[in-house]
Amino acid sequence: MKKENFIWNAVKTGLLGGAITIFICLVGMTEIFSKRDVVEKMITLGQFVLLATMVASGLIAARRTSSLFGENRPVQTLTAGLVAGLVTGLVLALFVYIGYSINLRAVFLNASTPLYNVLTFGKGQSYIWPLPVIGALGGLLGASFLLIPDVYRRPLTGGLIVTFFLALFSGLFRVVMINQKGGVENAAKYLFGQTGLTVEGTLIFFFAVVIIAFFWNFRGKEVQQRISRLPKRGQLSLRVLGLLLILYLAIGLPQVSGPFIAQVIVTVALFILMGLGLNITLGFAGLLDLGFVAFYAIGAYTVGLLTSYGPFGLQHVSFWVAVPIAVLVAMLSGAVLGLPVLGVRGDYLAIATLGFGEIVRLLAGSDFLAKYFGGPQGIIGIQKPCLGTLEAFVRVDVPRACNGIELGTAKDIYYVAVLSALLLAFVAWRLRESRLGRAWMAIREDEDVAEALGINLIQTKLLAYMLGAAFAGLGGAIFATLIGSIFATSMQLLVSINVVALIVVGGMGSIPGVIVGAIALIGMPELLREVSEFRFLFYGAALIIMMLARPEGLWPSQAAKRELHHADAENVTAENMI
Amino acid sequence: MRTRLSERLLDLAVSGFLWGFRILIVSAIVIGTVATIRAGKYTGEQWIDFVVFGISQGSIYALIALGYTMVYGILRMINFAHGEIFMSGAFSAYFLATWLNGTGFIDSNPILGLLIPILFAMIMSAAIAMLVERIAYRPLRGAPRLVPLISAIGASFFLQYTFRGFFGPGVYAYPPIKALDGEWNLFGFGILKIQIIVAVSAAVMMAILYSIVQLTKVGKAMRAVSEDKDTAALMGIDVNRIIVTTFAVGAAMAGAAGVLYSLIFRQVGFLMGFTPGIKAFTAAVLGGIGNIPGAMVGGLVLGIFESIGPSLFLEGLGITRPYQLKDVIAYTMLVMILLFRPSGILGERLTKKKA
Lengths: 578, 355
Fold this sequence. Notes:
- The complex is a heterodimer of chains A (578) and B (355).
- With 578 residues, chain A is mostly helical.
- Chain A contains 26 helices and six strands.
- Chain B is built from 13 helices and four strands.
- Chain B has helices at 5-39, 44-75, 82-102, 105-108, 110-137, 146-167, 193-215, 217-227, 229-234, 239-265, 274-287, 292-314, 326-340, and strands at 172-173, 183-186, 189-192, 267-268.
- In chain B, the strands form two sheets. A two-stranded antiparallel ribbon of chain B has the order 1-4.
- Residues 349-355 of chain B have low confidence and may be disordered.
């Protein structure tokens, strides 16, 4: 009875895996990803993703089997993995077979010959049989992974993950290292290929990580204990040293990395600004605002109208004067848009604010207000910030000269953006610890109880909207100067969704969570051109998966962790300490 | 209990602001209407055209709104992915209809050529909605309310970009049904056939749905579950099955709406579900969420307002190209109704907990 059960289970897992592989193929990932290598001349990213699915289905089937028996039984576990992987491979092979005999392309855009070529390793129709074999081997690999003792498994997993990430970003590392000139250049060429890691690089990185992790497994606790045994002052100086190191890296980074990475970091910093803002409204006070982009737009347009030397510039003040005004205007509009929705709760609030956001975007881009906001043409010619004195405005379409240092390029804006992000992170942190912050959290937990405790709902909620809006306004202001022009079309609802997603992924109410979320959701897709095609697909999947598996986020705040995991709260904190 | 003066002042300021907001909107509508009518730019026939277009578009909104309303009635949750269910119906119908069109079937049997894609779209939409419910919503039942909402937003994006990946970012043209081109003469007015067909099909669909909910056993079970899940379970109703059925029925309506929508606008694309989805939600709230006749009324009201609004209210206010601001009317209605009468036109006053 039980034997049947686990085989059938494995078949089901395999079918699910097969469905996922077909989804990956049809959505177009396989084809696009196969242009990138993980290891040069050995395995492409597309193949790697499919292989990973097979290994994962083997691993899941094996895990289910061992939980079915209540103990680890090597033979059954391996069989389950083998069967699951085999089924996954068979389903994929069947898909290729069908694809060769029926023209699926009439419906599915990606079911084309290049895809089948990737799947049959470029050898044509008769070469389908390797797929099930690879699937079975992959499944076996996944299952055997479960049988390895814990001591070895952790370093191996770590090694695989780190190597994979290095492979993904290998192009970037290569460019950055080659820019350094000298001996580094040769090392870069040795380790990183044009499109992925070289074989040597893979081996070196993998073993290095495995060895380090192995060492950490045995000695990590000791090192930590030794640090904690240090006197207070020693610990402090260690921390200061760490901070200084980060600071040094942060200052030096744009100098070595080139403009592209600086631009990406600025984007990440802008989203951190917005994320910190929404973190106040959503994370602290629990008010889901889907029209958050409106404040971003208001900040951007204020700076645009105040500093532009184009036809729509109203005033010609410098960036440093315009930014505080923009923040104030955003704050004020936060109050104006927040006032009507004070009594609206939960889902209704999300929809009402979404409506506000769309209204702002439509009005800004309409012909009706085109004489003020430029309509579809947008506002162009926004003056770059200048450290020093600006010369007087001469006439339209002529930028004002700067007597001093002009912060024109992305590299320079980088410092402005990162400094503002740090400053606001500090402000947000202090706000959270304040009386106001605790009032917000009380409202988030239960509005009625909070009111009964003497919290003034109107005042507290309005402050949440206003401060959140102010943060977003600052983000918009920097965005406007970075791009040098504003268009209503860049103020899409998607921006709001991005911000919500990064907060949710990072952990609602957690300040480091915002940074982690922004790096994961904004930075990574920007850096990976191949992935950016599927970025919103990943966002959607990430939101669902996070809600299912880890609703408290990647780097949760303490309160969220306690709330969502009553039972194993202690375990989590214990894990975090390690 | 005594409140401090500053708090009372703040309360006063807030309510003053809200009243100002209402007065502003109402006076804008009145002034705009009066000015437009006095200017007399449009003939009576044009107004009729606007209204008929509004009815056919509004009946599509009403069909989509049914899904929102039914799911909200049972789960108290906004199914954010409902607009994408609508889009998936349109896509499935598009592929079937193109194939049928290629074989000449639609030209020879226009009625079946209309009905078969609709049926197919309903089935596909229902299947996708059931899948979404199983994966993204069911495990989260009982979680804090923000959690399923965010999951629904995720599902919405996932579906959109899955379709983009499957079928490409382009916009497809839905094959025309030749028998439905041209106008019918009703009460002395020439009215596009397609608009009448759309309105009639939507009405038939809604009548079927309403009788399912009111007359059949499943419908009774649905009403029981939306009244009280626990008690319904005690009465021997399989709550999970009823919830899935509700999703499926609502999605089938949305799928049919997708076909009707693409019949009018002739365009099928992966982003087509978003705006109609929001507007249908507006319609559902407008009529009173959780209330099936309300969704129908709300859809019609919204459709007509949206269709005549730009010319009637906005043009009188001297706004250039008012048609660009068509969506602003819908969103403003949404915000206004949420602010001032969250229970909607037909809805009973919901208790604070329900709303």
